[in-house]
Amino acid sequence: PEQVQPTAWLRVNDEPVVWEACHTFSGSWGYHRDEDTWKSPEQLIMLLVNTVSCGGNLLMNVGPTPQGTFDPRAIQALSVYHDWMERHSAAIYGCTQSEFAAPQDCRLTQNSKKVYVHIFAWPFKHLHLPGMGGKVAYARFLHDGSEVPITGSAWETRQLALPPDEQLLFLPVKKPEVIVPVIELTLI
């Protein structure tokens, strides 16, 4: 798909296929001096995460100026990926669509026993993970490595009135200062 973001793994004859999304940093495939529709940092990171969470690869097009250099806006857009990937590359490289369903306003990527929760809209104090009850041994933020407390005991699950197949993460009230925070879940 070009300039389109799929919402699920692409299939041919109902079989998942290898696919790549082709996008631009702005509304143009080549350099355009007066282009004013450049994607925001949030859009760039969400585009990457959405693609990987649907089993795809992201290809970003950038056109050089007539002098053969990159426009400063393109360099700034590339630095968004660089800066975010410095702390969150484990949630992208080697990952694909998760076997679990994503919570509201989140996307999941997975690499074997690691599931990565990419949080697009920050919830208030708790994040419910359907279908993951009793399956998470440890949770931590990727940007700083700090632990994210989780429900653990059957007593705690009953006290919180959670379905037995649901895991609950206890989040800070304030969103971490990263474009898209990621929580790494280590599965049992």
Task: Give keywords.
about 190 residues, alpha+beta, five-stranded antiparallel beta sheet, two-stranded antiparallel ribbon, 11 strands
Question: How is this structure best described in words?
Answer:
Strand 5 and strand 6 (about 105-110) form a beta hairpin. About 20% of the residues lie in helices and about 25% in strands. The strands form 4 sheets. It has a 5-stranded antiparallel beta sheet with strand order 5-6-7-11-9. A two-stranded antiparallel ribbon has the order 1-2. It has helices at about 40-55, 70-90, 155-160; strands at about 10, 15, 20-25, 55-60, 95, 105-110, 115-120, 125-130, 135-140, 165-170, 180-185. The chain contains 3 helices and 11 strands; from the N terminus they run E-E-E-H-E-H-E-E-E-E-E-H-E-E.
Task: Summarize the topology.
Layout: E1 11-12, E2 15-16, E3 20-24, H1 41-53, E4 57-61, H2 72-88, E5 96-97, E6 106-111, E7 114-119, E8 126-130, E9 136-141, H3 154-159, E10 166-170, E11 182-187
Parallel strand pairs: 3-4
Antiparallel strand pairs: 1-2, 5-6, 6-7, 7-11, 8-10, 9-11
